[in-house]
Please model this.
Amino acid sequence: MTGIIKTDKLQSSAGNDALTIASNGGVTVAGAITAAGAITAAGAITAASTLAVTGAITASAGVAIGGTGAANTLDDYEEGTFTPTDGSGASLTFSTAVGSYTKIGRAVTFSLHVIFPSQSNANNAVINSLPFTLQNIGTGYTALAVYTNGGAFGAVTYQNTTYARMHNTAGASITNANLSGKYLRLAGTYYTS
Model:
């Protein structure tokens, strides 16, 4: 049997207004809301105290933090893995090639580990297939942390690309031959568009 109850307030057993329905359709709850299933709201849900959620929250339009403008809206979060590849043009196959990343908004933090094959190729060493394209503005260059058994050098990403190039301390490119049989670990944070 179904029915309709027309009311604008429900009271708790103690006589307090526990749920109030305003004339505009808004609902105010004076205590906790417990739901075994989904709670769907077409408008805003406002909590005057801490909002505790034990399941997932899906916010397809993003989450506004500290304001409602676009600059205050976190609209992307992602974690994942990727496979770094040779970007030098030498078609090298790394014996190990693993990477992981976390993307929060436009900031991408990643780490990767590759092992170069034994070879004597003179092309500049380039690691390709970073998980997202770097932003296409003048500050699109990012220095990365480098850990290797192939000598002292640095790595830099370039705007509007998905690769990192290795350079020695004088700024000259490191070649594939310099890294023959060596491991390379890169880590850093860059911004995407």
